[in-house]
Specification:
14 helices; four-stranded antiparallel sheet; ten-stranded mixed sheet; elongated; transmembrane transporter activity; 17% strand; 433 residues; cell membrane; transmembrane; single chain; alpha+beta; 2 domains; ABC3_permease_C
Length: 433
C-alpha cells in the first residue's frame, strides 16, 4: 500500500511542478539550517581524528581555590593536583596533560629570512596514547626526553613539507624562537575542527621556558597551567569513573591547608567540557540544551507553518477524491496515512536537497564558521586550513539526524491538513469545486 501511495505522490510531483519545486526548496532550506547546527555539534562530540577516543575521555580543565581570608583564585590545574586526584584511579588507561601557553612562536626556516608563525602545544608522553595521531615518520618523544627536558619535537606533515620538502625530516633540527629542537616524529595533520589537539608542533611540556616541577599558580598548590584528559579503558564504566573522580576532588579540596578547592563538577564528559568556557563557574547544561532545542524548534516550526498552508491548499483541490473514497468506506486513518505518506516524499526530497546544501554551506564558509562558536577558535592561526573530512560530514549519525528532521517537519506540516481533509463531511467533499 505504501508503494502505491508513493507512486501517486510521484505523479502529483510531475503534475504540479511549480508547487513541488517551491515545497522541496522550502523544505531544503529549513533542513539545511538545522543540519549546519547538527554537523557543527557533531564535530564537537564525535570521535574524529585524532580525537578518536572522545566517548571514553573525562576532562578536567580548571578549578577555584577559596582562601581562608576570603580571597578567590581560579585557573587551570597543577601537576600535583592532577596526580593526587586522578593518578591512581582504577580503570584509567592514560592521562594526557596539555599546558596552557599564550606566547607566540615563530619557526626560522634554514636559509630563509621569513619567519613562519606556528601553533605550538606543550604536552606529556601520554598525550599520544589518549589522542592516537598517525605517525608517518619516526615516533613520539620518550618519557626520558620529557623527564630530562630534551628539546625534541613532533611536527605536522604540512610543516615538515614546508621546511624540508620531500626529504625525510626525522632527526633534523628546527629553530623555534631561535632555539634548536630535534624532530623525532612526523604526524598526519589534524583539522582545526579538533582545536583542543590541533597544532603544527608538539613539545614536551618540560621544555617550556617558564616550567618548574610541581609549580603552582599563586602558591595555592592546586592551580597551575595544565588541562587533564583522562582516558578510561574500554571495559570501564565511564559514569562510575566520573563519580569516583568527583569524590576524590571533593575530598582533596577539603583537605588543603589555608583554604578549600573545587573543580565545579569536573571532570566532565568530553561533550560537557566543550561548553565549559570559564574557570570560575560551571555551565548550566540544562539551559544550554533547552536553548539549542528552542533554536531547532523555531527553525522547524516557522517553515512548517508555511508548508502546512501549501499542503492545505492542495488538499482543497482533492476534496472530491477524498469524498468519493470515504463514500466507498475508506477509513479516516487510511486517508490520513496516505496524505502523510505522500507528503513525506516531498519532505524527503527537500531533506536530501537541504543536506547537500548544508555541506555546500559548511565548505564555502569553513574559514569563518568555527569562529561563530566559542568552542573552537576566536581567530584562525595563520596558514591553518580548516579541513572537513568525509568522515565528519558523511556518516550514519548525520544521515539519521537528517531523516529524523524530515520526519518531524513532515508531521508538523502535513498532520493538520490531513486531519482536516479526512474529517470533512462527505457531502461537502463531493460537492467541492
Amino acid at each position: 500500500m505504501l508503494k502505491i501511495y508513493l507512486k501517486q505522490a510521484w505523479n502529483l510531483i510531475r503534475q504540479e511542478r511549480l508547487f513541488s519545486l517551491i515545497y522541496v526548496v522550502g523544505t531544503g532550506l529549513s533542513v539545511s539550517m538545522v543540519m549546519v547546527l547538527s554537523i557543527v555539534f557533531y564535530m564537537r562530540v564525535a570521535n574524529i581524528y585524532p580525537e578518536t577516543n572522545r566517548d571514553r575521555i573525562l576532562v578536567a580543565k580548571s578549578g577555584t581555590f577559596n582562601s581562608e581570608g576570603g580571597g578567590q583564585s581560579s585557573s587551570s590545574l597543577s601537576e600535583g593536583m592532577i596526580d593526587a586526584c586522578f593518578g591512581s584511579l582504577k580503570g584509567v588507561e592514560a592521562i594526557a596533560l596539555m599546558a596552557r601557553e599564550d606566547d607566540e612562536f615563530l619557526v626560522q626556516p634554514e636559509g630563509d629570512p621569513v619567519q613562519l608563525p606556528v601553533t605550538v602545544k606543550f604536552v606529556n608522553t601520554d598525550f599520544w596514547r589518549v589522542f592516537p595521531f598517525r605517525f608517518l615518520e619516526g615516533k613520539a618523544f620518550t618519557e626520558a626526553d620529557q623527564q630530562s627536558a630534551i628539546r625534541t619535537a613532533v611536527i605536522a606533515r604540512s610543516l615538515a613539507h614546508r621546511l624540508f620538502g620531500d626529504e625525510e625530516a626525522t632527526g633534523k633540527y628546527i629553530s623555534v624562537n631561535f632555539r634548536q629542537y630535534r624532530v623525532c616524529g612526523i604526524v598526519q595533520d589534524a583539522s582545526l575542527v579538533t582545536e583542543k589537539t590541533y597544532a603544527q608542533i608538539w613539545f614536551p611540556y618540560t621544555v617550556a621556558d617558564d616550567y618548574k616541577p610541581n609549580d603552582s599558580w599563586n602558591n595555592t598548590g592546586v592551580l597551575g597551567k595544565f588541562n587533564a584528559y583522562i582516558l578510561a579503558s574500554r571495559d570501564t564504566n565511564l559514569k562510575a569513573l566520573k563519580q569516583e573522580a568527583e569524590e576524590r576532588v571533593e575530598r582533596y579540596g577539603k583537605s588543603l591547608k589555608g583554604g578549600t578547592f573545587t573543580a565545579l563538577g569536573q571532570p566532565d564528559y568530553y561533550w560537557q567540557s566543550t561548553f565549559r568556557y570559564w574557570s570560575n563557574s560551571a555551565p548550566d547544561f540544562g539551559s544550554l540544551l533547552l536553548q539549542y532545542g528552542l533554536i531547532v524548534l523555531i527553525l522547524l516550526l516557522v517553515p512548517s507553518v508555511s508548508l502546512s498552508g501549501m499542503t492545505d491548499s492542495r488538499m482543497e483541490r482533492r476534496l472530491a477524491e477524498m469524498g468519493v473514497r470515504r463514500a466507498f468506506g475508506a477509513p479516516t486513518g487510511t486517508l490520513m496515512g496516505q496524505i502523510i505518506s505522500e507528503n513525506f516524499l516531498f519532505t524527503f526530497l527537500g531533506g536530501l536537497f537541504g543536506l547537500l546544501f548544508s555541506y555546500l554551506l559548511i565548505y564555502l564558509s569553513r574559514d569563518w564558521i568555527l569562529q561563530l562558536d566559542a568552542t573552537f577558535v576566536d581567530v584562525l592561526p595563520e596558514g591553518a586550513d580548516v579541513v572537513f573530512t568525509p568522515g565528519m560530514l558523511m556518516n550514519f549519525q548525520v544521515f539519521g539526524i537528517a531523516l529524523f528532521v524530515c520526519f518531524v517537519l513532515n508531521l508538523l506540516s502535513a498532520l493538520i491538513p490531513a486531519w482536516r481533509a479526512s474529517h470533512r463531511q462527505i457531502i461537502y467533499s463531493l460537492n467541492a469545486k
